[in-house]
Design a protein that fits this description.
By secondary structure, the protein is mainly alpha-helical. Among the domains are: 71-87 and 99-215, no CATH class; 253-327. Helices cover 61% and strands 7% of the residues. It contains twelve helices and five strands. Strand 2 and strand 3 form a beta hairpin. The N and C termini lie far apart (181 Å).
Amino acid sequence: MQSSLLSLPQQHAPEVMQYAPEPPPAASYPSSSVELGDLKRILVRRRFLILATAALLTLGALLYGLFTPALYSSVAEIIVDPQDLQVVTNDVNPSRVPPDGGITMVESQVAVVQSSGVLLRAIAATNLTEDPEFNGQGGLLSHLLGGVLGSGSAETDKTGKTLDALRRRLAVKRADKVLVLDVIVTAKSADKAAKLANAIAQAYLADQASARAKMATDASDSITARLEEQRKRVQLAENAVEAYKSANNMVMAAGNLVSDQELTEINTQLAAAQSRTATLKAQVDQLRRSGGAPDATSEAMRSAVISSLRAQEATLVDQVSQLGTELGPRHPSM
């Protein structure tokens, strides 16, 4: 009996091959070690270049010092009052100090100082257009251009060039925590800088005075127009009153109403008539008491004087009644 053996394939685990990392290549650095002797040889070899560079720098500094003159700065201080910038106000009780203490209003005056109107005033006051430092005609390039282009082109817009040059030399700022403007001007001489700073300050003050005068004139014209309008309204009202008086027979004479004068005269006449009547009545009573003749009494009663007085009294009573109807019983003359 034979036995057969089956040989099964055996499974083997995969082999893992491990590689050791290769060491990095050695860095190759150039051998640049310079010794003191080598540095000395380099300096000696390039000594002419070093000396030439130093000479050029020295020459440039000398030329800059020769052709660039020293500049001087001068400061003029202007005290700005915010309340002085208002001529009139519509407020009944205007506030004495603005909410921010007037800082904003003062800072707005910086632009006014730098405005063309103020600077042109200063230029005219100092005749700055004839100063070569500011009119653009003092340099070598300007002379060359003037010779090439002609004197007419060199003189063109001298005022504009002077204005631009003055702006470049001008600085205006508000001093810290105060209502003061610092006007700083730079020039080649201290006297000129001070003169220009003062001229700009004076020009600003003159400009503000002109502005205030114009505002005052405008305000005066406005007030005059309002007063004229009110005068016309008052005249119309007075005309209406006079028309009403004329329509109601309330004509004035010597400062009083004619009706008042007539009533006064009638009252005077009435008082006189009443006094005369009382006198005559007293005489009649005396005659009656004395036992005079009846004929004399009746004759006295029929006297023309008594009749006239009674007629006057009746007339005056009628006039008083008529005036009382026209004027009313509450009139002061009644």
